[in-house]
Amino acid sequence: MKTPQISQLSVASAFDGLDLQQKLYAHYMTKAAWAGSRIVFRQVSPEANGIYDFIIALYDGCDGDWERLATQANVDFQDVQLLLEYAATFLSNMGNYYGSGDQKFTPAISAEKLAVLAASASPRTAALWEQIGSSIFQGTPLGLGPPSDLTQSAYYPGLEGPSFQEDMALVSKIMDELAILPENTRVEKKRTFLEGEVLNILQASVAQKVSTCHVANDLNFDGRIIRLVNGDHKEEMMRISAYLTKALQHVSNRSQHEILEKLIESFITGNLDTYKDAQRLWVNDKAPPVETVIGFVEPYRDPLGVRSEFEGIVGIPDATETKILGELSKMADMFVCRLPWVTSDSNYSDDKGPFEKERFEAPDFSSVQSLAYCSSIIFPGINLPNYNDIRQETGYKGIIFSNRMVAESRRPRGLHLVDELEQETFKKHRFHAYYIWVVLHEILGHGTGKFLNESTAGSFNFDPDSPPLNPVTGKPVSTWYGPGQTWTGVFGDLSTTVDECRAELVGAYLIDDQDVLALFGYSQQGEVTPDDVVYNLYLQLGTDGLRGLENYDPTTKKWGQAHSRAHYAMLRHLLRDTQGLYTVICDQQSGKLTVKVDRSLIIQQGKPSLGRMLLSLHMYRCTADIVGCRKFYEDLTTVDDQAMKWREIIIAKKDPPLVFAHANTYLDGDTVQVREYEPTARGVIQSWAERGIDVDLA
C-alpha cells in the first residue's frame, strides 16, 4: 500500500463558538456517532473488528511510544512506520478495504516483523496476533462484492457461490411482502441438522426477537426456513441509544427532542418506519446550531445496493459559507428550469412538465465543520435522506463539509494526467471548479426529478390512459413505479452509481451558468474567470474519468465505487458523442497518459453532450426503466482493451490514499473540551485510542 496523505479535520474554532448546552449536545451526539464504529467494522469484513483491537492493543502496549516498541522488539523504526501507516489507513477507512474503491489493502511491513512487534508489546497483542495475523496479510478476497472466491460481503455471512442471487431473490420477495425495509439488515445463511437450510434476516436493534417468516413445509420455498432475527449489533445499538438519551437533555428545540425520541425508538425496536418519521422531522429542523446524521444511511457497499452502512455525523455550521449556499438554495428553482427535461420557457415556473416537481422547494443547505464522521468514506458533501418518498413529499437537506473540502483543495488528484504546460494552472483552478461542482451535485443533482408512479392500485401521479411523451424517444412512456416500488428496489446494483452519475451530470451541465458563477463571485475581472472555472471542470471530467479505472477490477470485471464508475461513464460518453473535444494520448512505453480538452468546443459540443446523457439517465430513473438503463449504462462502463492499457498507467501512478485525523470531545468539569490531533499516522491512531468507542457514557 502507498503512504497515505493525512489531513486534519480542524474544528476547534467552530466548536468554541457554541454555548455550553450546544457543546454538550454535540459531545453526546459525537459519542453516539463513534459508538457505531464496530458496526461499520463488522459490515466491512469478518476480521476488521479483530484488526482494530490489535491496533489499539499495540498502542496501549507501548503507551503510544512507538520508538520504545521498536527498541524493545529490536525492529528498525522504518518498519514500525510502515505499521503506523497501515494502522492509520485502516482506521480512517474503518476496515481493511478502501472506502473509495472497496479494494483490500495489506501492510508494507512484513508479517515476520509485525509478529515480533506483537510478541513484544503485550500478552494481549500476542494473543490477538494469533487470532488475526494471517487475515491481515491474506490477499483474497480482493475486494468487496457478491460473495465469491475473489470478493466478499459481510452483509451476507454464509451466503456464497451461484446460489447467492437465488437466495437473495427469495429473501427480497419475503421482505417486500412483509414490508421489512432492508437498510438496517444483513442476511445470514445457516444449515442445521434439525431444520436444514435457514436464511436469517438479521435486523439491527437492541431488542432481541426471532420471528418465523416462512417455514420448511411451504413448497414455494424448497424446504428453506426464513426468519427475522432482531438484535443484530445489539451492544452497539444499546450504547448509541444511551448516548442519544443523554443528548436529549441538551437539545436546542422541541423538534430535535422528537427526532431523538424517534431515533431511540427505532434503534431499540429495529423499526425503520419509525426511523423514517425521524428523518421527516430532521428535514424540517432548519439551520440547527449542531447538525447531525445517524443511522443506516448509504447503500454503496452492498452488492445489491439496498443494505446500508451505519453512519454517524456531527457538524457545526460555518455561517459565512452557509449564507452563500442559502442564496443558491433560494435561486435553485430558477436553475431547475434550465435542465434539459424541463419544458418551461420561463424561470420559476410551476409547470415544468411531467418529469419534474411543480415547484422545487429550496432545501436547508449548509456548510459545516465536521466534528465526527463515522463512515468508511468521508464525502465532501451529502444529500439526505435517501428515502425517495420523503424527498418527494417532505424534502431533503444538503450539507457541505468545509474542513473536508480543505483537504481536497490541497490535493490536485490526477495531476499527472494533465499536460505539463497546464499543470500549474490546473492546480490553481481545480478547487474553484470542484467546489461549485459538488455544491450543484448536492442541491440540484440529488434534489430534482419526479418519479412516475402508481402509489396504490389505480392511483397514479400521471394519466396512464394518456401517458406523457418521453423526450428521448418521442413515444409515450410505458414503464413506471408500481405500488411499494422504490428507486433502489427497482434498479438494485445500478441504483447508487446511476444516481451519482446523474447528479454529477447536473453539476457539470450547469457549471457554465453565469448566474451560478456570479453567485460564487467569479467575473471576467477576477484572478480566476468564469471561463477558467468551466475549462477546469471539463478537464476534471477527463482526469476523473480516467482515474475511475483505479476502481475497476479486471479479475472480477466489477466496479468498486459508484462515483468512479459514474466518472468513467461520463468520459466514455463524451469521447463517443463529440468530435475533437477530448484527446487521450497514451504512451505505454514511457508510462505517460495525458488528456486534453479543446476549450473552443466546450459550449458548442461538451454541454449538449452532457445534456443528452443527463436526459437519458433522468428518463430511465423517472420511469423505472431498468432494462433500458442497464443496456445504456453497462455499455458505457464496459472496459475494453484500450481502457485496460490506460488502467495500467493509472494504477502505476495512483494517488496516495487520503486519511483523516478527527477531533475528540471530552467532559472537563462543568464544560466540554475539544482535542485535535496532528495530521500524522501517530495522530490518527492516538485519536482512535482516546475515542473510547467501547466505553459507556463517558
UniProtKB/TrEMBL annotation:
Subcellular locations according to the entry: Cytoplasm
The enzyme's E.C. designation: 3.4.14.4
GO biological processes: proteolysis
The entry's keywords: Aminopeptidase, Cytoplasm, Hydrolase, Metal-binding, Metalloprotease, Protease, Zinc
Active site: E442
Note on how the cofactor is bound: Binds 1 zinc ion per subunit.
Record keyword RNA-binding present: no
GO molecular function, one term: metal ion binding
Catalytic activity: Release of an N-terminal dipeptide from a peptide comprising four or more residues, with broad specificity. Also acts on dipeptidyl 2-naphthylamides
GO cellular component: cytoplasm
Enzyme class of the recorded protein, top EC level: hydrolase
UniProt cofactor(s): Zn(2+)
Binding positions (Zn(2+)): H441, H446, E500
Cleaved signal peptide residues: none
InterPro entries in the record: Dipeptidyl-peptase3, Peptidase_M49
One Pfam family cited in the UniProt record for this chain: Peptidase_M49
PANTHER family from the UniProt entry: DIPEPTIDYL PEPTIDASE 3, DIPEPTIDYL PEPTIDASE III-RELATED
Name used for this protein in its record: Dipeptidyl peptidase 3
Species whose genome carries this gene: Aspergillus taichungensis
